[in-house]
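Before we proceed, please read the two lines closing this message. Let me know whether the structure tokens fit the sequence:

…
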Amino acid sequence: MRVALPRIHAITDERIARRGDLDDVARELTDGGGSELAFHARGRALSGREHYELAVRLSRRPTVRLFVNDRLDVALAVPTAGVQLGHGSVPVSAARALDPRWWIGKSVHDLAEAEAARAEGADYLVVGPVYASATHPDRQPLGLERLQELTALGLPVIAIGGITLERVAAVHAAGAYGIAAIRALWDAAEPADAARRMWEELR
């Protein structure tokens, strides 16, 4: 049986993956987010071994759901609740054939990509950047109005890009099912409090 799709997605990058305090921060985020928290093992410049080791470390929290971005070989090797597919990843149908219990998400940046992902059979969408983001400084922010157009397609939408605690209520009001963040969670002064307060805004 497939678990419910979490609403708070704490995504890693290469910097986060290589931090010495990764396990400590992951524990604090787990304390705050509980079963509504998902960890995304992500890092485009990570080696296969690094990506696998990251996924193993993030999977040690029993209440948290692990998602793996792009690396389906890693997702098959570690207990995984879902996979996140980006531009150029394998088709949704190919991922579904590997494990029908996975949540399969697609990263999209506009309405056309979102419609294509829905037609392809994606279970949820990661939509962004909603706001200006240091992670993708070259991308024009969608803004709340265009976010609302994508949430109207009917799939659960996880909003990403410049998401802070102060912006969670606004993206939720625009129809987002949940949020995804790197810095606002992993770099928070009080990670448990950040995750807990984000969940309160999404209730």
